[in-house]
Specification:
Rossmann fold, 7-stranded mixed β-sheet, 15 helices, globular
């Protein structure tokens, strides 16, 4: 990033900024605030804060060129109080135990806010999928699965795709688990190919959930989709699907931001044509029906809805003051740092927090798990109808909780989630 830009960081700011960007510290800060407002017993706070289990495994792999390499993998099961652990597996070079721990806790709160019967988990392997062949990725996936297999299962922990993984990786995981248990067990993982027990509507689910809650927010402000300008940051599965569905619903997508630049059209982008362009060129940049724009410039465009749908830490104490949106709909996990929360609140920006906004994915994963266990599969219309019901109920529950406790939406979401998990913990009691 160029010097003197709002997101720039000087050497004197580095230590505090490093703390701000630490996802585990952000999750802990928000947890502590919600627990304090709920006047929660300190002992119960310790129980809810502490992960149930953290697993680190080392994965020796024979690479295609004959070299041996050892990869590090993690699986954190944060809570299994309300049901099996649920959460994705990411393959990325910057995976860390702190990130996985934070994401596992977010899954606990996300499932609680959506009120689906799962706990929270997350996994990852430190690797760069872009530098690995399909054979190498398969060997990593199968060995990683074998190393943690005793902790996986439809009633224990149900993984799903995340950054750097996809349907194929989930198929390998399901097959490895099934070979070890000597029976095909489709419900051990979600996000599978349709032909292996995947659910219709799963690929669009997170983006569709974002659209549903965005529409709910518009109703609160008396806005109509055709008068609503949207900036989407991230054009992968979540951002791309959200942009496409929002455009079909009448929203005006004026900018899409990706890692290598952004494109802008004040009259609205042709999202399906932009998808084709990105597929052909590998980038949204130089799209014929738009002008190129810097990423920061696009992030700070005046709009009604900003939809961050890539990775963590996009809206920080450095970028938040420059936002000119009315609504932030968080399609990504942790796109806003804890330090930026108060800034957004002071700017009167309405935040639909990630643990609700992007819960569409885990909700349809829940549907997939249910269908696998029933051996009975739903059509896409039924999937989408039930998804809308859960997302709308989640939004309304959040608004009621926010109003009742007179707190901002993010704090209300954490309070609601902690309340539900704490209630289940008390009902179960402690085994000793």
């Amino acid at each position: 990033m160029e010097a003197d830009q709002p997101g720039d960081m000087t050497h004197s700011q580095e230590p505090s900024m490093q703390n701000e960007l630490n996802p585990w510290l952000a999750a802990e800060t928000r947890f502590n605030k919600a627990a304090r407002l709920l006047e929660m017993d300190e002992g119960l706070q310790k129980v809810l804060r502490t992960p149930s289990r953290e697993i680190t495994v080392y994965i020796p792999i024979l690479l295609d060129d004959g070299r041996l390499e050892v990869f590090t993998g993690y699986r954190v099961q944060h809570s299994i109080v309300r049901g099996p652990g649920k959460g994705g597996i990411r393959f990325a070079p910057d995976v860390s135990i702190e990130e996985v721990r934070a994401l596992a806790s977010w899954m606990t709160w996300k499932c609680a806010v959506a009120n689906i019967p799962f706990g929270g988990a997350k996994g990852g392997v430190i690797c760069d999928p872009a530098l690995l062949s399909q054979g190498e990725l398969e060997r990593i996936t199968r060995r990683y699965t074998a190393e943690i297999i005793e902790f996986l299962g439809p009633e224990k922990d149900v993984p799903a795709p995340d950054i750097g993984t996809n349907e194929r990786v989930m198929a390998w995981l399901m097959d490895t688990y099934s070979m070890h248990t000597r029976q095909t067990t489709t419900a051990v993982v979600t996000g599978k190919p349709l032909d292996l027990g995947g659910s219709r509507g799963r690929r669009e689910a997170t983006g569709r959930g974002c659209m549903i809650v965005a529409l709910q927010a518009l109703e609160r402000f008396g806005l109509r989709p055709e008068n609503t300008r949207v900036v989407v940051q991230g054009f992968g599965n979540v951002g791309g699907m959200a942009a496409m569905l929002l455009a079909r619903a009448g929203f005006k997508i004026i900018s899409v931001i990706e890692y290598d630049g952004a494109v802008y059209n004040s009259a609205g982008l042709d999202i399906e044509a932009l998808m084709e362009h990105a597929k052909e060129t590998g980038s949204v940049v130089d799209f014929p029906k738009a002008e190129n724009m810097g990423r920061d410039e696009a992030l700070f465009l005046e709009c009604e809805v900003l939809l961050p749908a890539a990775k963590e830490n996009v809206i920080t104490s450095k970028t938040a003051p420059h936002l000119r949106c009315r609504i932030v709909c968080e399609g990504a996990n942790g796109p806003t740092t804890a330090a930026a929360d108060e800034i957004l609140q002071n700017k009167d920006i309405f935040v639909i927090p990630d643990i609700l906004a992007n819960a569409g994915g885990v909700t349809v994963s829940y549907f997939e798990w249910v269908q696998n266990r029933q051996g009975f599969y739903w059509n896409e219309e039924l999937v989408n109808t039930r998804l809308e019901e859960i997302m709308v109920n989640g939004f309304r529950d959040l608004m009621k909780y926010s109003g009742k406790h007179q707190v901002d939406n993010r704090t209300a979401a954490y309070m609601l989630a902690l309340d539900r998990v704490a209630f289940a913990t008390k009902l179960r009691g402690l085994y000793a």
